[in-house]
């Protein structure tokens, strides 16, 4: 299950972002997963729970966005979404295509929480 290794790298990057922003906790993380990324979303969600344990992201929610497979045809020049298991040009049926989307695995958003310094707290 390489999803755990992916999540460990993801949590390392999330921790780096949190440190850089002076955050105390990560609330949510949004990741875009391409249809051709070689990552199974369900396994990624389960692996994230394991990888986040004991880190600044220990309570973070993982939100996944799916990205479609896209090809550009060398024959007719069309660019279109395709099924991940059918990398043919939908316009002309040609097989000489170049993958132009769907291989991504992107950290899109990290929602952070910072503690309010005692000097800024208001007592009522």
Summarize the SSE layout with pairings:
Blueprint: H1 3-21, E1 25-34, H2 41-52, E2 61-67, E3 69-73, E4 79-82, E5 97-101, E6 105-113
Parallel strand pairs: 1-2
Antiparallel strand pairs: 1-6, 3-4, 3-5
Descriptive report:
The chain is an alpha+beta fold and 124 residues long. The chain has one domain (3-114): 2-Layer Sandwich (hypothetical protein PF0899 fold). Helices cover 25% and strands 32% of the residues. It contains two helices and six strands; from the N terminus they run H-E-H-E-E-E-E-E. The strands form two sheets. A three-stranded mixed sheet has the order 2-1-6, with helices on one face. It has a three-stranded antiparallel sheet with strand order 4-3-5, with no helix packed on it. Strand 1, helix 2 (41-52) and strand 2 (61-67) form a beta-alpha-beta unit. Helix 1 crosses helix 2 (41-52). It is elongated, with a radius of gyration of 20 Å. It starts with a helix and ends in an 11-residue tail after the last strand. The mean pLDDT is 93.
